[in-house]
Design a protein that fits this description.
heterodimer, A: about 110 residues, mainly beta, 4-stranded antiparallel β-sheet, B: mainly beta, 7-stranded mixed β-sheet
Chain lengths: ~110, ~120
C-alpha cells in the first residue's frame, strides 16, 4: 500500500531561519511521482514541485530546495531564510500505481514569526 | 476570475438536508476531481472524472454523488448530509494533454467549507 508520512504536525521558527519539512513515503511501484503543495491561510492549494522516481537530482528554486533520496524514501523540503509569507500548511503527496491517484500526507503547518 | 471556481464558499446546513457544491473551470481541462480535507488527514479523493462521460469513485465516495454537466462543470452532492461530512471540500482540475505524465499537476479551487449541524 502507498503511504505518505509528514511527521511534523507544526513547526514554528523565527523569520530568516532555515527550516526543513520532512516527507517519508512508502510504495512498491518502481515508477512514481512525488509532489509538494502549499496551502496558505487563504486556503487554496498551490503546486510547488513534482519529481519522478527516476530523477534524484536535488532542485533549488529561489529560497526553496528539495532533497529526494530513494535510499531513505524521503522527499524533504527546505526553505532558506524563511519569511512570514512562507507561513502555510505544506503537503507532500505521492502518485503511482495504475491510476496515478494522489496519496496525501497529513500536512505540516509552518509558522514563521516576525 | 479564478481558473477554478467553487460555490458556495461557506455553507452551514442541518443533518438530513441535500447539499450541492458546484465547481466550474475556465482552463479547458478534461479531468476534474473532488477532494475532502479534514484536519490531520490531508486530502482524500471523493470522485474524479476524466471526461464528461467518465465518472469514477475515489477513496471515500460513500454518501456522495457527482454530476459532470459539461467539460467545465463538476458538481458534488450530499443527498442527506450528516455531521461527519463537515469538512473543507476542494475541486481540482488537470490536463493530461499538456501534462502527459500519469501524475498530473492539479489546479485547485479556493475550497468550500461545509458545516453540518
Amino acid at each position: 500500500a502507498q503511504k505518505v508520512t509528514q511527521a511534523q504536525t507544526e513547526i514554528s521558527v523565527v523569520e530568516k531561519e532555515d527550516v526543513t519539512l520532512d516527507c517519508v513515503y512508502e510504495t512498491r511501484d518502481t515508477t512514481y511521482y512525488l509532489f509538494w503543495y502549499k496551502q496558505p491561510p487563504s486556503g487554496e492549494l498551490v503546486f510547488l514541485i513534482r519529481r519522478n522516481s527516476f530523477d534524484e537530482q536535488n532542485e533549488i528554486s529561489g529560497r526553496y530546495s528539495w532533497n529526494f533520496q530513494k535510499s531513505t524514501s524521503s522527499f524533504n523540503f527546505t526553505i532558506t531564510a524563511s519569511q512570514v509569507v512562507d507561513s502555510a500548511v505544506y503537503f507532500c503527496a505521492l502518485s503511482g500505481g495504475s491510476n496515478y491517484q494522489l496519496i496525501w500526507g497529513a500536512g505540516t503547518k509552518l509558522i514563521i514569526k516576525p | 476570475d479564478a481558473d477554478v471556481t467553487q460555490t458556495p464558499r461557506n455553507r452551514i446546513t442541518k443533518t438530513g438536508k441535500r447539499i450541492m457544491l458546484e465547481c466550474s473551470q475556465t482552463k479547458g481541462h478534461d479531468r476534474m476531481y473532488w477532494y475532502r480535507q479534514d484536519p490531520g488527514l490531508g486530502l482524500r479523493l471523493i470522485y474524479y472524472s476524466f471526461d464528461v462521460k467518465d465518472i469514477n469513485k475515489g477513496e471515500i465516495s460513500d454518501g456522495y454523488s457527482v454530476s459532470r454537466q459539461a467539460q467545465a462543470k463538476f458538481s458534488l452532492s450530499l443527498e442527506s448530509a450528516i455531521p461527519n461530512q463537515t469538512a473543507l471540500y476542494f475541486c481540482a482540475t488537470s490536463d493530461p494533454l499538456v501534462d502527459p505524465t500519469g501524475a498530473n499537476v492539479l489546479t485547485f479551487g479556493a475550497g468550500s467549507r461545509l458545516t453540518v449541524l
